[in-house]
Amino acid sequence: MLTIDFQRLRDRLTDPLLTALTIMFAALLFVVAPLQTMGLISAHNFGLGFSLVIIATVLVISDNWLPIVSLLGALGLVIMATVLRLKQPSPLDILLDASAWLIVGVTLSIVTARAVFAVGKITYHRIVGAILLYLTIGLVFVALFCFVALYEPNAFSGLGPLRDNLSVSGNFIYFSFVTLTTVGYGDIAPVHPMARALANVESIIGQLYPATLLARLVTLETENNRVK
After folding, report:
1. How far is CA 77 from CA 64, 110, 159, 222, in A?
2. Taking the C-alpha atoms of 80, 157, 171 and 169 in order, what is their torsion angle to the nearest 10 degrees?
3. How far is it, in rounded angstroms, from Cα 50 to Cα 65?
4. pLDDT of the residue at 2
C-alpha cells in the first residue's frame, strides 16, 4: 500500500518538481555564483541546503537508489572541502568541489533525461526539464575544465593559476556557458590542447542539443497522440 501511494506521489509530482529544480539550479548558477565571486555572499550554506533539496527531489523523481547514493557522495565531498577550506585553503578543496560538481551534473543529467524523454504527454514542465538538462551539461563541463586547470595551471588564458578562492566557480561557470552557447567573447580562452578539445565538444553539444531535443519531443508527442 505504501509503495502504491509513493508511486502515485511520484507520478503527480515529477513534472512540477522538474520546473522547481530548474528554477533553483538556474538561481544557483546565474545569481548565487556571481554574487559569491563578488564576495557579497558566502554560498557554502546555500550549497549544502540546495544539495539536500536536490537529493529530496531526485528521491521523488527517480525510482532508483543509485542516484541518491551518488548525490550523497557529492554532498560528502562538498562538506569535506568546506571543512578543509576553513582550516587551510588549498587546491585539494577545488578538486573535491569539482568532483562533486561532476557527480551532481552527471547524476542530474541521467535522472532528468529519463523524466523528460519518457513516454507520455509532453507537458510544460517536461519542456522546462529539458532546460534543466541543458544546464546540467554546462555544469559537467565546469568540472571538467576545472580538472584541466588543476592539471595544467596555464590551460586557460585570462584566468591564471587556480587559487582556492570564491572566483573559481564563477569564472568556470561563465566560461562553460559562453562555450555551450557558442558566444565566445574571448576574454577567457582555452590554450592547452585538452582544454581546447573539451571546449570543442561542449560547443558541438550546444549546437546539436536544441535540434535533437525538438525532434525527440515532437516524436514523443506524435507517439502519445497515436496511442490515444
Report:
1. 22, 20, 25, 43
2. -10
3. 19
4. 40
Rounded Cα gap, residues 73 and 95, in angstroms: 14
- Predicted model pTM: 0.86
Spell out a b/e string for 172-189, using b for 16 or more CB atoms within 10 Å of the CB, else e: bbbbbbbbbeeeeeeebb
- So what's the pLDDT on residue 227? 57
Count the Cβ atoms, other than its own, within 10 Å of residue 84: 15
Phi-psi domain of 157 (left: phi exceeds 0; alpha: psi -120 through 50; beta: other) = beta
134/132 Cα distance (integer angstroms): 5
Give the number of C-alpha atoms closer than 13 A to the C-alpha of residue 50, restricted to the C-beta side.
20
Question: Burial of 39 by CB count in 10 Å (0-12 exposed, 13-18 middle, 19+ buried)?
Answer: exposed
Residue at 161: amino acid letter: P
Where do we find the cell 560538481? 101
- Res. 228 pLDDT band, cuts 50 70 90: low
User: Which residues face 189 on adjacent strands?
Assistant: 157
Q: What are phi and psi of 156, to 5 degrees?
A: -130, 130
Which residues does 54 contact at the CB level (< 8 Å), separation at least 6? Answer: 21, 71, 104, 108
Which amino acid type is present at position 128?
A: V
Number of domains the chain is built from: 1
Q: What's the pLDDT score for residue 68?
A: 82
In 97-173, at which residue ranges do the beta strands (DSSP E only) sit? 156-157
The residue range of the domain holding 62 is 2-227
Cα 158 versus chain centre, distance: 24
